[in-house]
What does this fold into?
Amino acid sequence: MTVTEAQLQDVALAREEYEQIVELLGREPTPVELGMFGSMWSEHCGYKNSRPVLRQFPTGGPRVVQGPGENAGAVDIGDGQAVVFKIESHNHPSAVEPYQGAATGVGGIVRDIFTMGARPIALLDSLRFGPLDDPQAGARNRYLFGNVVGGIAGYGNSLGIPTVGGDLFFDPGYNGNPLVNAMCVGIVEAARIMRAKASGVGNPIILVGAATGRDGIHGASGLASRTDPAARFAELRPAVQVGNPFMEKLLLEACLEALATGAVVGMQDLGAAGLTSSTVEVADRGGVGVRIDVGKVTRRETGMGAYEIMLSESQERMLVVVERGREDEVRAIFDRWELHSDLIGHVTDDGVVRIVDGDETAAEVPARLFTDACPTYYRTGREAPEMAELRAFDRSVRPDLAGRTSERRTSNVTEVVETDSAYNEPGGDVRRSDVRRSTTAYEALLRLLAAPNIASRRPVYRRYDHTILTNTVVPPGAADAAVVRVKGTKKGLALKTDCNPRYCFLDPELGGRHAVAEATRNVVCTGAEPLAITNCLNFGSPEKTENFFQLDRAVRGMADACRALGTPVVSGNVSLHNESAGAAIPPTPTVGAVGLLDDVAAALTMAWAADQALVLLGRREATLGGSEYLALLHGRTAGAPPPLDLDEEARLQRCFRELHKPLIALAAHDTSEGGLAVALAECAIAGDLGATITQEALDALVADNGGRLDRALFGEAGSRIIVAADPHDLSNLERIAREHGLATLTLGQTGGDALTIGEALSVPVAELRRTWENGLMRDDASA
Amino acid sequence: MNFGVIVFPGSNGDHDCLHTIGETLGQPVRAIWHRETSLDGIDCVVLPGGFAYGDYLRAGAIARFSPIMAAVERFAGAGGPVLGICNGFQVLTEAGLLPGALLRNANLEFRCQWQHIRAARPDTPFTGGLVEGQVLRLPVAHGEGRYFASPEELARIEANGQVVFRYCDAAGATTEAANHNGSLNAIAGVCNERRNVVGLMPHPERGAEALLGGADGRLLFESVLARARAVAGV
It folds into this structure.
């Protein structure tokens, strides 16, 4: 063998994989071919570890226009239109260079959408960081957080695509390995969806957009497919691309205009692995070959060879296959938008990807060797042995919250609430702190509202332009999902990303079910019908059995939920190797849900209004296992996450939509982190109006939660929604719930300027708001 | 009345202006590419928001050299109504058609939120339908909107009554908290001496439908339409 270990390391191929390549080719690969194989056989492009797992997902359905396998998925929304969407990770680039990493993540996902011929109309971002006040990593986490948000804002705002939603979660498990998942949503005439497919022998291939530079070489193989990027910060930084949103804006407008001519037969953006993956993919999908002359590619720097040109990940570039004879017409459009375009090759009939540099052949490989022949690893998983014990943790052996009264509220106690890190020994002694004092429900509520995982996201979303394009009907923060209208129709789209990584850590399969259930439930709470989901699977290295177990089980749970809730997976992305200092991140299968509202003007928010009756629709039993309450007040991620009956969840979602149609439901909020009490507080803040929950309702909740106030107020559960309704509609509401086999509990009524929950607590809405608004960071903005 | 919306490479508020003028208000409107040189047949020019040429150098610094800007200057010089919104306002100050400059927000961050502004004298084409002191609620979305002028220039435009809008609270008070970007004298919008060219940082085109959270923005477009009708004697 002539290849050295160092060369293999560069392209992230195993020795056995190299030998396989030699066998497939019948010869040693050229350096360019080796680099191309490294990229195409990376997890990022080739899905070699995740492919068998991903087969579990349901991907079809009556409304699915395009499932996984293209640049994005597409779903029919009627009137001849389709919604095109996808979520994608940019975790490792963001860990190394947060501003550019996040910015180019947005750029990449936006290109995926307009490559399909769709006009992008909304962005969402699902972000995960280590705690901002982490004793060791806090400063780095604050730097990452600030710059990731800055990068998303800088790129998205310039492009003029509103960032309308997402989710944000902090956990020590993300120290050193933040997650940046960006989702883009677009609208296209269904009949005009463009595929990334080359066809028509002799058709010219045009490369348009930015000049090709040395940035991002080995991004797919080196950066995305290895662990612990932060530790090799200086070394890897050159592998991160630099974004130019102005160029992307021109490319977006020019490509949509070029597509409208009908002269374009295929289009593929240059993302991970640049010219390599784009040429291979258009050839493979079209069942044709391509001949590319890298000498025709305009370069940013001198001295770049075929290897660098083929592996560069310079941003804002697009590969366009044009009908022969119409290339001038298309290039004239690019010229008008002041974009440079190069005629770099043409479609051939032999299925071979042929890369030449002038007279020299640099690579000559059948396209399918890069794709179909990519090895697939069937791994087996095994749960880490300590997990069962962790799940068995039961909070109920410890004392409950103090007093059912609000008397302590005025006692001005300032001592720090105890944390019970050494506190879970079964039958252990009652610790000093218990004797000293127990937390009150009031204190627990305010601490939860100020928690970084619950507090207002306004400090983040006010940096994102979310009003541009004049479609934002329900803005960020107003409801469980954002709602944008579809211009020219009465329709709206409800959009949300979600994933509770604690649930996924403690029980990946259950956590996967919850991720799909909650994202779709959030969409349902605006009155929308969930259509489909996209997902981004963020996990540790699959070579480790416990990590593979998490991936496999989480996907199983998600797939089951997708089937039960009628939401197929139409697109997605896999990000493995998310590890820092040898430890994997909490498994994070982020779900992006898209729902359809027939009448966007009827979209619901969580803001209740005066004299409305409040009803808890669905489950009364909650659990503290895996809860924010347990993590925040007791420093524990333990216990069994809330159970989730998928049939019950499906009935709940159907029932709520039925309540929405005749406008029985007037406001709605599901209960997630922080449980019922936090959800009620969020509604009160949104509506700027208090409410009184009766002692009778509280007693019923406590009774159904093992007699515990903490579980009743702050325990978490799926399959339930707080519904505000006209008191006259209560009997109708209860009847419809019964028809769906669902329980209802009348909680109380809105009104007044305080949120009162029986005798457990009573807090002025202004105090709730102040606490919640200043939790993430001090809010200095005016109204 | 024929509206023209100037499109620079990097403009991104052009779609919203075209939508609001064309669809919401039902007026004839066309996009005018920055390389065009004539505004023949246009009765009102709008410079939209965005990041013209990427705004990498300084907001509006390159756009002012676009071929169409000579036509805009002639149009303004002849008394035609010109409205610059956000980036369009920045371009107009760079081109010298409006006084002052827009600097980075005092908090150094891009801010997107609904904001109250208070109208001053209603004697520009875009504020004729307002009353002095009227409070409007409109979206802002910018990172470089802090109004600045030299002390002499500021004194002059104040004395001339060229300040068209100021940031305020819901009650119309120009509090420090309401001046979210730290503009001098809480200035949100100004006009030229002749009062036919108006620039403002808030987005009237984004706040022109109740469905989107507020329709106060319509008033600016309706003002210029009412004025046209009055001039035509209809």
In short: The first strand of chain A starts at residue 64 and ends at 66. Residues 138-159 of chain A form the longest helix (22 residues). Chain A touches chain B through 36 residues (CB under 8 Å). The CA atoms of residues 202 and 347 of chain A lie 5 Å apart.
